[in-house]
Known about the structure:
Layout: E1 7-9, E2 48-52, H1 57-68, E3 74-77, H2 88-91, E4 101-104, E5 107-109, H3 112-122, H4 138-151, H5 155-164, H6 176-199, H7 205-221, H8 224-251, H9 268-283, H10 286-289, H11 296-305, H12 309-314, H13 321-332, H14 341-366
Parallel strand pairs: 2-3
Antiparallel strand pairs: 1-5, 2-4, 4-5
Amino acid sequence: MASSNNVTPTNCSWWPISAMEEDGRIPDGEDGHEPAAVEPKPFSKDRLVLYHWTQSFSSQKVRLVINEKGLLCEERDVSLPLTEHKEPWFMRLNLGEEVPVFIHGDTIVSDYNQIIEYLETNFVGDTVAQLIPDEGTPMRARVQQYRELLDGLPMDAYTHGCILHPELTTDSMIPKYATAEIRRHLANAASELMKLDHEEPQLTEPYLSKQKKLMAKILDHDNVNYLKKILGELAMVLDQVEAELEKRKLEYQGQKCELWLCGPDFTLADICLGATLHRLKFLGLSKKYWEDGSRPNLQSFFERVQKRYAFRKVLGDIHTTLLSAVLPNAFRMVKKKPPSFFGASFLMGSLGGMGYFAYWFLKKKYM
């Protein structure tokens, strides 16, 4: 079990079984409980496993780091809409019920920042990319500065806010159907929580409290004035990034080298920036912040970073992002009953709107 510092050695003879096995089958279990005895893979001290959810922003950045470093890592998808992060097999890895969780041999790391530090500290060498420069160098200070700046952006607020207020976006990848679904959930949240409290007595008060806090958080993100405020602050951050990219052009003028945010080497700062721009593009904010020609260096950066193998592998075609989130959960629903109304609502909405999503995607890309 993960300790308070989120990095802990443990006896992995009980190696957890994911909700989705490698052959694509969901292990049999009763009512979403831990599956019956399954023959585990032989344990290896060098085995790398990442438990993540495809659409989790933190998970995406960790996956980008792993792929940029060229590490062979087994990925297990933990569906948050299906609330697999609340099942016993996952809570044995992380009581905090959050992804990503990284396992290396007998060590479990269950915090985004500590996973990054662990990967950089333990996987080094001539054939492994170094994404954080050496201690004490000016480059390291610059990378850390932009890492903290970009990681500090309230991405969940941007995401919820742009879904709930599509009028503030342009060419969002999220269809109106999703906005209507979320608004319906918000309208019914209070009554559904009361119903859940009454019908599911086995759920603990901390769990219900966490669900209520989640709904309160989304309600805060529904405040259009708050959303406009944080989007204004985002513009200032992107101005700073644009200026930094301009500095690199002047600093290396006349030299034949590919330039990134902090210098000629691709670093963690570039992963943070690339993932951020990808999410903003998905939300329909790219035309407002760089595709209008106001930040040409940012535009150039985004075009180049999307061509990198790791980005193509992890994030794929931005037009298929929504479908990649919906389809796996819809198929996994066949053998898995979600334990909370959030998961159930998501799946019902997913199945009901799948045809709409497919039509919308084809129209967006080909018409």
